[in-house]
Amino acid sequence: MQTENKSNYDVEESLQELSLLTETANVKIVGIEKQIRPHPHPAFYIGSGKAKALSTYAKNHQANVIIFNGNLTPSQDRNLSKITNLKIIDRTQLILDIFAQHANTRQSKLQVELAQLEYRLSRLKRRWTHLSRIEGGIGFRGPGEKQLEVDRRRIHDRISLLKSKLKEIEKIATTKRKQRKNLFSVGLVGYTNSGKTTVLNRLTSTNNYIADKLFSTLDATTKGKRLTSKDKIVISDTIGFIKELPPYLVASFHATLQEIIYADLLLHIIDISHPKLYEYMEIVFSTLRDIGAQDKKMLLVYNKIDLLPRNEFLFMKKKLKMDFPNSVFISAKYGKNFTNIENSIINFLSNKKHIINLKIPNQKQKLISFLYNNSEILYKKYNNQFSRFKIKLPYTLYSQKFNQLRKFEIKTKRMAKRKAIGAT
Ligand SMILES: Nc1nc2c(ncn2[C@@H]2O[C@H](COP(=O)(O)OP(=O)(O)OP(=O)(O)O)[C@@H](O)[C@H]2O)c(=O)[nH]1
Ligand SMILES: [Mg+2]
Question: What is the pLDDT of residue 284?
């Protein structure tokens, strides 16, 4: 639907994305209809006349479902089903359906089910307030209400069960992440279909599933990579973002998104050939804000440069470099300019410092003098048995000396407090 604050161009682009989502959900499109209105109709979203016309159009084309590019209220959904006699799906339902189709691990299946139930629960709640407002509460307590109560309780019980199962899985992932604490971690983020998995495959010579579909990746995959003889890093690929990613999905995929939250550096993969790249970048930034990862260091990686004519590419590159100097331009599909990504990561690594508190027995003279020579000492105190240090060490050296250093690492009160409240 086109409202007053959306341009025709925006609507076309948005409909194209809806078509891609629809195809990804394996639904064949028989027709696309637009309507211009100042506001969505409260009862039907589109006008009731338009709804009837759509219903006739759908029947003439043997269609059995109408997909809306917005989010419908429960009553709009019901009224449209009634008036058209067809299955009605909105944008959130479509995305949830794609996630359900693509989930193929225990974790992603549980996460999708959780998102679907949270969504259903919100619809039941809204329906409840809607009905009680109309019925005024009194004299309304009948089987309908009981059924709603039963449904709600069942959903709540299942949600609790799913949450506790997911907590268990998350615990295992947290333990694994702690084991590789000494390794520098890079997280891939970006709009869906921008090429994140293709980048991961290229960087780590692996073969994870890629497809010209939205949300091909629903899990977190972490792979190791040796950058130089000294530096080994880990790279994680996770779900892509999209405009209006349903909040239920962001919440239920919390465990999968942890790899982004704990990454030392994010590679933001952007499809440079997409006409809406600026908007898509903004959506990625705002989704990162939603999950609390807005302050991460980020390298902007403009992908799919092979899809732009040379002149256009050079023009775009100049412009983007001016706006975002910290960016590289690659083609993941053809393995172009990957050394630029690697060099940027190495550069970042060599500038990154790690702060650590240590309590070292004085007889460990070799280690102590290594620290004096290679780190910035922020604090020191010693007695005749131990030396206490707070040091700032280049990440690469920290990583090399990790096994030795962790034996003497002391947790500060602040860290212990964070641990007690469940943060890692
Ligand atoms: N022409 C071209 N196509 C690319 C390039 N990189 C990736 N692709 C294609 O873009 C599509 C999406 O690639 P993926 O790597 O699956 O993208 P993704 O960001 O992981 O996508 P989701 O996991 O679905 O969010 C695939 O068809 C890739 O072959 C590139 O540099 N050039
Ligand atoms: Mg992917």
Answer: 96
Give me the residues of the chain with pLDDT under 50, please: 128-142, 416, 418-424
Q: Which pLDDT score, from 0 to 100, does residue 423 have?
A: 38
pLDDT at 3: 61
What does the domain layout of the chain look like in residue ranges?
8-89, 102-172, 179-350, 352-420
Query: What residues are paired with 67 via a beta bridge?
Result: 89
Amino acid at 31: G
pLDDT of residue 224: 92
What pLDDT score does 177 carry? 87
Q: How many whole angstroms separate alpha carbon 302 and alpha carbon 328?
A: 6
Q: Please give the number of the atom of ligand 1 that sits closest to the Cα of 192.
A: 25
* Mutation pick for ligand 1 pocket among 102, 208, 210 (CB with most ligand atoms within 8 Å): 210
Ligand 1 centre to CA of 329 (Å) is: 15
Ligand 1 is surrounded, with C-beta below 6 A, by 190, 192-198, 210-217, 240, 303-304, 306-307, 331-333
Q: What is the pLDDT of residues 157-169, one digit of tens each?
A: 999 999 999 999 9
Distance 416 CA to ligand 1 centre (A): 42
Instruction: Tell me the CA–centroid distance for residue 232 and ligand 2, in Å.
Output: 23
From the alpha carbon of 331, which atom of ligand 1 is closest? 31
CATH architecture entry for 352-420: 2-Layer Sandwich (3.30)
Give yes or no on whether 8-89 and 179-350 have one common fold: yes
In ligand 1, which atom is closest to the CA atom of 214? Answer: 24
Q: Which atom of ligand 1 is nearest to the CA of 190?
A: 19
Instruction: Kindly identify the ligand whose nearest atom is closest to the C-alpha of 268.
Output: 1
CATH architecture of 179-350: 3-Layer(aba) Sandwich (3.40)
CATH code for the domain defined by 8-89? 3.40.50
Q: How far is the CA of 216 from the centre of ligand 2 (A)?
A: 5
Nearest to 266 by CA among 285, 279, 286: 285
Ligand 2 centroid, distance to 240 Cα (angstroms)? 7
Write the DSSP symbol of residue 240.
P
Predicted pLDDT of residue 213: 87
Which among 69, 95, 67, 103 has a CA at the least distance from the CA of 248? 95
CA dist 170 and 150 (Å) reads: 30
- Could you tell me the end-to-end alpha-carbon distance of the chain, in angstroms, rounded to an integer? 45
> Which amino acid is it at 267?
L
| pLDDT in the model for residue 400 | 80
Query: What's CA 246's distance to the chain center, in Å?
Result: 11
